[in-house]
Amino acid sequence: MTRLWNAVSVIGLLTCLVLALWAYKSGILDSVETLQAFIGKFGYGGMAVFVLVQIIQVVVPILPGGISCLGGVIFFGPWLGFLYNYVGICIGSMAAFGISRVMGRPVLYKMFSEKLIQKYDSWTQKDSRFFKLFALAIFFPVAPDDFLCYLAGTTKMTWKQFSLVIWLGKPCSIALYSLGLTTAFRMIFSV
Fold first, then answer.
1. Rounded distance, CA 93 to CA 52, Å?
2. Do 78 and 178 form a contact (C-beta atoms < 8 A)?
3. Cβ neighbourhood burial of 156 (10 Å; 0-12, 13-18, 19+)
4. Helix or strand or coil: residue 65?
């Protein structure tokens, strides 16, 4: 099963690369305005597809979350990009929690490396400690959030506790990702 998840991730990444190459050759990536005009042609459908991609990229990590957050800001502007990132990532996080709640610890071993699991497994030894560490990790954009959402589903954390941390903690990390990566993008490409 781990090989299947790895294959899905590789296929997803290759698909993203092929689409990026196609967009580049088609002139869609000539400027931010050109890209936004292309996405704008799809109306609400473009927004819905982006939110769906954000949900999927949490459940099946294909790209680093920061890259897709940057995409939201570039595609839709800072405010709508933030909103679509937030909604998609939070729904995806809830789905990851639910999947691991149903499937248990085996899902961790099917999707993530043993090294990553061992690194964070000590957090789960005390439920109150895990809740605090999880909340901090979700608030700051440096931890493997997707994995931690799956890990949380294997603990005694309640849906209410999880939802509270995700819906209140994600705005800060998404804003930091979006702001930091947008600034870096503009510096690199002088947009």
1. 12
2. yes
3. exposed
4. helix
Give the whole-angstrom CA distance, residue 44 versus residue 35. Answer: 16
Burial of 71 (0-12, 13-18, 19+ CB in 10 A): buried
Instruction: Fill in the DSSP letter of residue 125.
Output: G
In the three-class reduction of DSSP (H, G, I as helix; E, B as strand; rest coil), residue 178 is classed as helix
What type of residue sits at position 112? Answer: F
pTM of the shown model? 0.81
| Cβ atoms of 79 and 186 closer than 8 Å | no
User: Three-state secondary structure along 22-46?
Assistant: HHHHHCCCCCHHHHHHHHHCCCHHH
CA distance 110 to 134: 21
Q: 59-108, pLDDT tens digit by residue?
A: 987 776 677 888 888 888 888 989 999 999 999 999 999 999 999 999 99
